[in-house]
Amino acid sequence: MDISRRQFATFAAGIGLTAALPLSEARAEPNRPGPWQTRGVIAHDEFTRGLRQWAVELEDGGQVSARHGRLEVDVPAGATLWFRRALQGPYLLEYTATPISAGGANDRVSDLNNFWNAVDVRSPDDIFAVARGGKLAEYNYLRTYYVGYGANGNTTTRLRRYVGDPDQRPLIFDYREPLLTANRPHRVQIASNGSTQQWWVNGRLVFDYADPDPYTAGHFALRTTWSHFAFTDFRIRRLKPPRSR
Fold it and tell me: How far is CA 51 from the centre of its chain?
C-alpha cells in the first residue's frame, strides 16, 4: 500500500528518525515525538566477546574480529557476516559503520552493504544449511532486501529485492548519492514494518520502499568487498504498532 510523504514523516519521527524527505532535501534533524515507538531490545552485540553471534563467509580470506567494543572487517574481496539469530518484524535495526582509509592494503572506501529479512530458497528453514563462500553471485538464491551503499568504488547507492532466482536481482532504486565518507561514522537504521522497508544513514532517509508482497522475517547480514570497516553499537528493537488517532 502506498502511503503519503506526511505519513512517512510521522512514522519516522516516532521511531527516533528524521522526517522522510527527498534525497535532495533531507538533513539530520532532532528527534521529534510521533505515534511510533519501540518496546525494548530484541538483540544486541557490544563486540566484546568475539564472533559467537555471527557467521562469517569470506571469498578470499581477510581479517574479521570482534573485541574492545568494535567489529573490524579488513578484507581483500567479498565478505558477508550473518547475524545468527533470525528476525521477525516489525523491528528497528541499528549500527554504526566507519570506513577506514589509513593507507592499508584494503583501505578502499566502498560497499557498506546489507541483507535483511533473508531466506535461502534452497533451505527456507535454515539459511546456514547451504554453504556459501562470500562471492556476491552465491547469494542470488536468497529472497531478501539488499542495499549497496557507496558500492562500485563508492559511485552507486542501490536497493535490490532479491527473489531467489539465480539470474535475477530486481533493482528498486538506483542513486548516485549519498555515498560513503572516509573515516566518518555512518549510523545506519533499518526499519522493517510489514510492507514498509526503510534504510536510513545519519538521520537521512535513503530508501523508502512499500512492498506489495513484503519479506517480513529472516536473517540480517553485514556485507562488503575489498574494504576495511569498523562496526559498533549494534542493536535491534521491536517496533510497536502506531497509536490510533
Answer: 18
